[in-house]
Amino acid sequence: MVIGLVVLELHFPGARSLKDKRQALRSLETRLRERCNVALAEVEHQDLWQRARLAVVSVNTDQAHLDTTLSAVVSEAERARNIELLDAHREIL
Predict the structure, then answer these.
(1) Per-residue pLDDT tens digits for 25-80
(2) pTM of the full predicted structure?
């Protein structure tokens, strides 16, 4: 069993309130769950309008497949509308 973790640092340049941020973040979270079959949580900056740190986790028996999944997560975050990906840190546990 292999566990993969990606921590995404996100910026929401157009957000003018927590509601704006949460709407954009919810859209990204839904896409990641549906397309990549991962578990995720906002782990930091919950009270800031334009920042979020998102932890995304996946479990697999094959490390190559896990790497593909984690790459897909980062790609989805890069393509997300109204969200700027500042940093993506990967770990295999």
Answers:
(1) 999 999 999 999 999 999 998 888 899 999 999 999 999 999 999 999 999 999 99
(2) 0.89
Q: Which two three-digit tokens encode residue 60?
A: 């697999």
Of 91, 92, 88, the C-alpha closest to 80 is: 88
Structure tokens at 33: 């769950």
Q: Are strands 2-11 and 84-92 parallel, antiparallel or unpaired?
A: antiparallel
- The string of DSSP letters for 8-65 reads EEEE-TT--SHHHHHHHHHHHHHHHHHHH--EEEEEE-TT-SSEEEEEEEEEES-HHH
**CA 86 to centroid of chain Cα atoms:** 11
Distance between CA atoms of residues 47 and 75, nearest Å: 26
Of 86, 70, 68, nearest to 38 by C-alpha is 70
